[in-house]
Amino acid sequence: MDNLAKNKFTEDYVENLQRITLKNFDETSEKDKYDALCDTIMERINQEWRASKNKSRYERTAYYFSAEFLIGRSLGNNLINLGIYDEVKELLDELGIDFEAIEDYEDDAALGNGGLGRLAACFMDSAATQDINMYGYGVRYREGIFKQSFENGFQKEEGDSWIKDGDGWSIRVDSDSRIVNFRDQAVKAVPFDMPVVGLENGKVNTLRLWQAEPFEEFEFDKFNNFEYDAAVAKKNRAEDITRVLYPNDMQRAGKVLRLKQQYFFVSASIQDLVAKYKRYFSDDLRFKNFHNYHVIQLNDTHPNIAIPELIRVLVDENGLEFEEAFAITQKVFAFTNHTVLQEALEKWPIDIVEEVSPRCLEIIYQINDLLVNNFKEKGLSETEIDPYRIVIYDQVHMANLAIYVGFSVNGVAALHTEILKDDTFKHWYEIFPEKFNNKTNGITPRRWLVYSNRALSKFITEKLGTEDWKYNLDELKGLEKFADDEDVLNELWDIKQENKKRLATYILENEGIKIDPESIFDIQVKRIHEYKRQHLNILHIIYLYHELKKNPDMDFYPTTFIFGGKAAPGYFRAKAIIKLANEVARVVNNDPDVNEKLKVVFVENFRVSYGEKIYPAADVSEQISTAGKEASGTGNMKFMLNGGLTLGTYDGANIEIFDHAGEENNYRFGATVEQLNEIDQSYNPRGIYQTNMDIKDAVEALVNGELDDNNSYMFLDIYNELINPQDGSRGDRYFILKDFEDYKKTHEKINKDYRDKLAWSRKCLMNIANAGYFSSDRTIINYADEIWKIDSPNY
Ligand code: GP0
Question: Is residue 67 within 6 Å of ligand 1 at its C-beta?
């Protein structure tokens, strides 16, 4: 901004502030100041937004259909992408306003559970920055993921009504409202558009989130008859549809309301696309070029009911023959799978599908018949066809639907895609090998570095002498030339130290626990899941605690273990893991024998905006899932980009991180997928427990009174799963005990290596320098080139 622009910004801002509050400047609150800043920025964005819309109108566009967009806060990110972050901060400073203080008035838009939703948000940022036409379509939940707090160490959930004070980053577009028909009710779908600003390139894409509303606020005749509850019953039933995000990560809820949510946003979105198409093209075309302009990426199985819905709209509302509509549909849909865990592959009971949309169920049967005929022609017998069926017994298999109809199926990391091909979807791969492809996940460097690690960002620009890396993260490779430059390595170390101090202050304020910024920050933040093995980490801490108790003078570099993450409210064992971590923290942190050397913190309510403070401050990034189980992981990339070293198994994108940054610059441990497959049948966790005293002592602490679970039987539950299975299985399904010893040894190595400051800092540098591949810019360009063919529409 030149001086003129700066003055104009300040003027607009002060004017907005007074206009929206009707107060004089001095009387306005911090919240007022935040609101007015939002307004002022939205005004600026608006011009570029309209220009982008006008320009891209009718170009080939990708539509990212996702039940989740885990956006977080928008203020700082928008300022960064508009290229005015530092200037606005300064201008506010001149007005006596502390930017960081007002930033805290923004609630996270937490419309997602974890990795899958956050990936969608990163993709939005990257598409805009890379000038790719991509619209996001999703749900405007009134309540995002629950707020987590701890009571006595147990997780407690509370609602997250993030828009109760308004939402400064959306525009309600009433004129584009649609009607969504369910079997037993009809509701209005009202779109709220959020601008997605590209990095200083004038491009603004749109994220359109649909909110369910009734046609009328209340029924007047009922009200007149004194039936007050009945008068608003319809309204409530409509609003219920988008009231709350299901807080289950990977677990299928199987509830009518959940399928209603899915059908709701998908139906509104499909109607939106079709209506827009019809404004541009004549009826005579009968949608024959629809696929030239539209490609829909299905983010997991959640939006897959879009497939029959498109057919329904084309056939029932536009007079196409089923065959015509089906042929178009086949060219429009592409599907991304995010997990090999069976519990996340959605299968809907047919009666639920019928309850939501009887017509879609009918179309699903039609597609199923087509599949069966088609496969018979290929020479398959009835039983050979079985695993491919879309309707199996009384269930609709949403993945089968998308793989059969869609033209592309992708996994989210190299290993994951291989497992899809050789195992999960092996039978499909045999018939349609050409549909399968890999798109390794990525993260946006704008939010996860430029914004959240200002100091490192400045350091990089200074060393590279350019800001090009913000658009092309491969440029970071240029940092390698400083690998043996002691001054540079010291500088990098100091940046990490500053970030650790900042986090320590924040943790003291928010968790009431004092941690030492000089200690190793060893961090595991992610959803709580058995396969992610937070309990391996905790058992190891118990082991360390025992060692330090036995030998307080043991040679051990002080370490702070930090956890964060939510458990699905109905996932008992995940909640048990949280209680266990909190209990270990209580015991360790209160024990004067060890608490100079060992600290444990489980931060409350881990979320995007907490992550922005955590990732820059990590020395060690815990990525310890059972090999073969974590499809990709994306937290691993956020740590890497900020110079955290990966302590990880050979799983998901960890493998690619080791490949790019070098195993010698990270800490790999544990069994590989092949090794686990081999021992699977003969695995005997009890045997390990009986022969390894370190393990035995740690596991026993779960039940011998050393740790207190307040009679919840939670620790016994974990104990039983590990070595005393109650269900006749062999126990320890996630191979905790199997990998323990190697994990312990690898930690010992870390504990030694950290003392060599220069060598450690060199590893950090090598990780940052090789993080380019993990930019979601690269991922989204791969989608655009290889799946969407967005640069070469064949019209
Ligand atoms: C996968 F199936 N993921 C699912 C799901 O329901 N929710 C979800 O967040 C995650 C994977 O677990 C992942 O490995 C992956 O990176 C992410 O989707 C994005 O592809 C964890 O980060």
Answer: no
Contacts of 368 (CB under 8 A, 6+ apart): 389, 390, 391
Kindly give the residue spans of alpha helices, DSSP state H, lying in 22-57: 30-56
Calculate the alpha carbon distances from 756 to 410, 493, 559 in Å.
Answer: 42, 11, 15
Name the residue with tokens 């024998």. Answer: 593
d(CA 218, CA 221): 9
Q: What is the pLDDT of residue 794?
A: 37
Regarding the beta carbon of 338 and ligand 1, being less than 6 Å apart is answered yes
Q: Is the CB of 299 under 6 A from ligand 1?
A: no
Tokens of 189: 């779908």
Structure confidence at residue 793 (pLDDT): 38
Contact (Cβ atoms closer than 8 angstroms) between residue 125 and residue 118: no
Q: Is 638 a catalytic residue?
A: yes
Q: What is the model's pLDDT at position 303?
A: 98
Q: What is the pLDDT of residue 211?
A: 98
The low-confidence residues of the chain, meaning pLDDT below 70, are: 792-795
The phi and psi torsions of 296 (rounded to 5 degrees) equal -115, 120
CA distance 418 to 652: 11
Is the pTM of the predicted complex or chain greater than 0.95? yes
Instruction: For the beta carbon of residue 686, count every other beta carbon within 10 angstroms.
Output: 15
Q: Is 119 in the pocket of ligand 1 (CB under 6 A)?
A: yes
Ligand 1 atom with the shortest distance to the CA of 635:
22
Mean pLDDT of the chain: 96
Q: What is the DSSP string of 306-323?
A: HHHHHHHHHHHTT---HH
Question: How high is the pLDDT of residue 226?
Answer: 81
pLDDT at 58: 86
* pLDDT value for 216: 80
Residue 236: the pLDDT is 94
- C-beta separation of 443 from 775 below 8 A: yes
Residue 497, token pair as written in the block? 């130290």
Q: Which of 339, 623, 657 to mutate to test the pocket of ligand 1 (most atoms within 8 A of CB)?
A: 339
Name the token pair of 658.
Answer: 């080791």
Give the dihedral sign, CA 127/128/130/135: positive
Alpha helices (runs of H) in 590-634, residue ranges in sequence order: 608-614
Beta strands in 337-425 (DSSP E): 347-349, 391-392, 395-397, 408-411
Residues in CB range of 283: below 8 A, 6 or more apart: none
d(C-alpha 571, C-alpha 527), whole Å:
12
Residue minimizing CA distance to atom 13 of ligand 1: 633
Of the chain, the end-to-end C-alpha distance in Å amounts to: 41
Cα gap 343→128, rounded to integer Å: 34
Cα(556)–Cα(329) distance, integer angstroms: 61
Q: How far is CA 3 from CA 91, 97, 113, 475, in A?
A: 11, 19, 43, 32
State the complex-level ipTM. Answer: 0.96
Quote the pLDDT of residue 227: 83
